[in-house]
């Protein structure tokens, strides 16, 4: 297993948010975690990458117990986190953002750094002409690409992404997710947290559904999409609504179905 | 006209000292959001260390180097002892903490060096006259060294990986941690920079403006005003702010009243803060260094 | 939520009794001192009492308004100088002179505060420091004020033909003044004003949205704090007999700060305890250090101050008060704990769907246009988050705002409620133009909101949170609060109505818990209860269903219908599209900041642009993309 999470509890101060999360991602697997706002998805990622202390439970990264590692150490061990809202370094150039992405590998072989950068550029050729531009001047979609590219510069084993689709037009969402699929095909392990369940279902190998701090459903997307608890909207929230859309082949029928159910 | 030139020149060299102190404020503030009220004490301490080292027979240059190094060390120790242990640094806490350090350093200087103000031996003594304007060689040194140090700091932030990593911490601390930059190391580095430039300001200023245990207060405050004029997040703004403040002060002292000199800085501060919180040279609120 | 310095404020657990006990203990100790101490110790005590007043004012500013002033000595000096001038130059007697001195200082504080309090945090602190220095400079430069040598010959006060010239007499004269100061301060802290300011410290935008005019309150506290300093200044002038520019000096401001911090900013009486501790330390160090280090002269005691300030901030940020409450808590055994999520759901009162709720006299008749939004636009840098948005909302209807994540819904809410100024466009609420003004203007016009990223008042109980919602429905001000009597009945009414609302939302049992100890879902309900406490005509809800269980969602939907039946207008942003379509009368759809559809749920459901945009189109599906683009205006 590239990433193995067992019985993870975490929260803010005295308030517990995660109540025992189990999650695994094998090598070259893309796992999507979906759920409504407030389900605890971002909290899970923050705990995974060490931004938030873990109350109990364990996290293993490629066999190493990394529970309690801080984000700096985790980045060195091989987990890269692409944060919600991209958080690129706005006044720094695109090239400098990439250089800082490889900060933990700054003493590593230059060849490996160059290879990581070439791969990132091949994945997002749109960034190439903008290398000298300040990152803050990029469009939302380009900033998302940069954030992912920056994550890749750390030469990670596991890449976790927090809501890469936020604020992006559907076409860009497609572009981002097909890039993620490509990374998976190249053997990278990915965990994607999404509210846009539809986009996630399209590329994920496995899907975990979170509700109020727990994983309530787990399985491959095809099986889950026919699960009555998903398509029937039992879980409520954005997940159910989005999942409805996902299970339908064409958008028009989706709307019709929604209308039919009334 | 000669008067004006004389005042302008005096203002610029005074302003260059403010600029260096201001850079220290910017270095620390951008990384940790702390306004270091002990920044002026760094300068005063460096001046006093150098004076006493010269007094005990050390050559001037060695004394200056010793002063800068020891103040840089003090800054680093301050970060470890006072800033690092605090888990949640709020404005209130950071102000009180650095005020405490400032007060403690002041009293320590009083105990060790006594209450009198003294001046360090100038790098080059004497002065010359140029078109009626009297210029001290030390003032030229101040302008030259302050210029070189400012450029070096600017180059550091623009061109080196360490400098860029500090900017990353300033702009997006969460993302900086996620790419593996240690915020605690960044904070330490920022104090090292602030201590060093503050100390350089102190030894440069001492021969002309004299140093006492108390001189850090106004110097620190003027430095803060300068940094604020520049928007508090930009090295370039801090330098311009320092020069502007120095010139305005000497013009006020020369044409209105010497006593009002100190009031000018703070009136300016209040006016700028209320009217243009991003600083007069600031373009946007976005974090820059 | 980051933890800040502990703050003063109502409806924090144990704060009420803690302060009363603290004040009583302090009073006893103050009165006992002259019985046991020597004259030189009492002399130190006189200064402690004088400074305590100034420190108390600063403590109020820090605790209530969350702002640090490094220029408290400036106001101290203004009070002292005014008193000195009136007594020595115009031969006023002490008491009327001090009344005028306080009035002059408060006026000065108002004039200084109006521009300065637009600043926050570091900037305010350093600007007040600058103010202190300016006062010193002006005093030094003014011949009228005696320049550097100051004003001499201020006599000891005389009351009822008795001259207070021994330390003990002066001390006993000051004790009642300090006690009065403590009593007034405590009343303000426990009042509507104190509660509102506590809320501002926790979440300014939420407090503003409930009608709290932050700026106004901050100015009031600033002026009040200066008033305390000026009383101290007048007492100081009479005791010392001479006043010079040192009275405005920075080190004195630092001393006041140290007193407030050492005693504990989270308490009222702490400033007095801190004042005695600091004055004792000051006196002790002045004697001790020259003995240890022969030749040490001048302000050597500062070293103790510096060390004390830093160590307190690192190890005991709540000051001595923290030790005291910690000990009390250990004795009592702390039983509080967060509520586990599985402890059960909030039970909203089950009632038939259409029973009107919170209907009241004077509510606009259903159908009356309440909110008019015209051409609302927001650009961040090059990105247009909201583009030319129009919306009209009438009383008694539910309008939903839906759209993909990042479509600009929350930005639209922020502009409508005044939290964010729009780049262009107009917002009119019940006839008042509100765009670009603060949220309290929106609240005053009868509208409020909840927040997607919860903005709960973290240091208050659930009840305390909801009571802030009654801010505009109660009116006792600073003076009434200080004198307590007129405000008490109103407080009881506010608490009663807040409890009723909590029952309505099924939070009755949580009323006295800290709001942050509740699970997110229930915190959301607290925000809704808090908003309803304002008794608004229009309610904006940002994702009210998020984090709620299925049952809670249904109950909330029922509640919203009942509110609509009571004549309230509701606009909600919601991700749960099905819930929205079932609930709303009209639906507006946003995509990329543009309103692409507006209509009944049925119309929106069948709108091709909505289907294409909101439900998304496969990127490889060229035809559908083209159709969607053609359908977008």
Can you walk me through this structure?
The complex is a heterotrimer of chains A (262), B (289) and C (633). Chain A contains eleven helices and ten strands. With 262 residues, chain A is an alpha/beta fold. In chain A, the strands form two sheets. A six-stranded mixed β-sheet of chain A has the order 6-7-8-3-9-10, sandwiched between helices. A four-stranded antiparallel β-sheet of chain A has the order 2-1-4-5, with helices on one face. In chain A, a hairpin with a 2-residue loop joins strand 9 (206-211) and strand 10. The longest helix of chain A has 16 residues, at 170-185. Residues 231-262 of chain A have low confidence and may be disordered. With 289 residues, chain B is mainly α. Chain B has helices spanning 2-32, 39-55, 60-83, 91-113, 137-159, 161-171, 173-178, 183-209, 215-229, 235-255, 261-275; strands at residues 127-130, 133-136. The N and C termini of chain B lie far apart (37 Å). Chain C is α/β, with parallel strands linked by helices. Helices cover 55% and strands 10% of the residues of chain C. Chain C contains 24 helices and twelve strands. Chain C has helices at 15-36, 39-65, 72-88, 94-116, 121-141, 167-189, 192-202, 204-209, 214-240, 250-263, 270-292, 302-315, 319-332, 409-416, 439-444, 462-469, 478-483, 485-504, 520-533, 550-565, 577-583, 601-605, 608-614, 622-631, and strands spanning 158-159, 162-163, 369-380, 383-394, 398-402, 424-429, 432-433, 447-449, 538-542, 569-573, 586-591, 594-599. In chain C, a hairpin with a 2-residue loop joins strand 6 and strand 7. Chains B and C meet through helix 4, helix 9 and helix 11 of B and helix 5, helix 10 and helix 12 of C.
The beta-strand count of chain A equals: 10
Rg of chain A, alpha carbons: 18 Å
The biggest beta sheet of chain A is recorded as: 6 strands, mixed
Number of strands of chain B: 2
CATH architecture assignment name of chain B: Orthogonal Bundle
Bulk shape of chain B = globular
Alpha-beta content class of chain A: alpha/beta
The main sheet of chain A orders its strands as 6-7-8-3-9-10
For the CA atoms, what is the radius of gyration of chain B?
Answer: 18 Å
